[in-house]
Design goal:
Blueprint (H helix, E strand, L loop, with lengths): L19 H5 L1 H4 L12 H30 L3 H25 L4 H5 L14 H10 L14 H11 L4 H11 L6 H4 L11 H12 L5 H32 L11 H7 L6 H9 L1
Length: 276
Amino acid sequence: MTKDTTPESATLNFADKMSYTDYLGLDQILTAQHPLSDAHDEMLFIVQHQASEIWLRLAIYELQAARNLIAQGQTRMAFKMLTRVARIFEQLNSAWDVLRTMTPSEYTQFRDDLGASSGFQSHQYRLVEYIVGNRNHTLLKPHAHREDLHQALKDELAKPSLYDTVLRMLADNGYNVPSEVLTRDVSQKLPHSAGVEDIWRQIYQDPDTHWEYYELAEKLVDFEDYFRRWRFNHVTTVERIIGNKRGTGGTGGVSYLHNMLKVELFPELWSVRTSL
């Protein structure tokens, strides 16, 4: 006879109480998978991408909070959030390992059912890039058919990016950030600035004096490190499954993703390493 190990104090009747399923909205989440084919692996494809979008939802939440705190001068409080975003992208990296269990022949069984849909159309991924500073206006176009998403992205472009906010905070604390950096059109990607690199060099050459900003720099680099790995894993996963075919959304597929690997979010934080 099996012994009942249920704790005596456990609530077992949820007729008039909120349950785990209720709180998490699991009825909606777990019924949101609608394969369009009979292919076994289409469920994997859908779940992997939906799970990634949920993690991106949290990344956006944390990045926006970190930016707000830095704008208020509460840099140390933002460290926790930036660390969390890096760990989120570590989780997103692990998701590619699951998707890579799908072979090319398995993917071809349902690829045509995807139509023109493609991961590069993810408005949440685009929002992450816009928040941290990679502001490519051309990539607004895939969202023009959804005014709510299109407007959310345009609203983000009107705000200083996370990196802009960091540089303004440095200027407020006595660092000689070039005026052209501070007065530029924030809707555009910040080009590499020798003056900004000089500031990071000053900070890295004397960490004890500039510890708070030295630590902030490393938090940003840590995030971009995981972000780059995520992009790289995306490339290798796509190449492993479709080779050099064009993407479903009309991009060059692997060639497009390779170009994305060259994009730097915080360029001076990488170039300064050469001169230290």
